[in-house]
Amino acid sequence: MSKLGPDAVRARPASDLRCTDSQSPQVCLWPEHAHRLAETARTVSTAVEGLQNVGVPAPETVTEGGRQPSVEQWTITVRQDKRFTDQDILAGLGTDLTMLLVSSRSDDSRTGCPEDPARAAQRAFDSEAELSGWLSVHAGMNPEQARLRYGPRTWASVSRVLDGSTNIQMEWYRTTLAQVRCMPR
Predict the structure, then answer these.
(1) Residue 39 contacts residue 86 (beta carbons within 8 Å)
(2) CA 87, CA 93: separation in Å to the nearest integer?
(3) What does the domain layout of the chain look like in residue ranges?
(4) pLDDT for 13-48, tens place per residue?
(5) Overall pTM surpassing 0.90 (yes/no)
(6) DSSP letters for 43-104
């Protein structure tokens, strides 16, 4: 019998991570991606700054070793493949951050959610894609890349919001985050 347990995997120790020394937020990657640490740290720094401008609080750490993601510790995905670009990093960051923000809610209110579970699920699903795209662009993703990644229906909604003032966008962010949280459980 294996000592690995039923999943036949063992979590990597966080001590294996290679991290930036003095940057805020600190960026940590697995050793096989350490050669991309400086590049990834620049991408993350720009992303965090852009997201702070629309009300998303900065994390203390952004890491590949995100066993317990939180508002203080975001997760990131990096690949060795040279075709994996900063735009890919930003797309993953936007997706991971969307899920983190949805799950870090401060209350369980379902105010404004459709009563019908199917309508609530559809609204949540659509809002999740829009929020992820919007976060990715504010993190620094090229809008043309975002349009291609998120598709015409999602991009049509996101591009209208991006054309609005910062105040309009921040209100949209709060409303859309609440809509994503309408997902039936």
Answers:
(1) yes
(2) 10
(3) 17-104+111-180
(4) 888 999 998 778 999 999 999 999 999 999 999 999
(5) no
(6) HHHHHHHHHHTTTPPPPSEEES--SS--SSEEE----SSTT--HHHHHHHHHHHHHHHHHHT
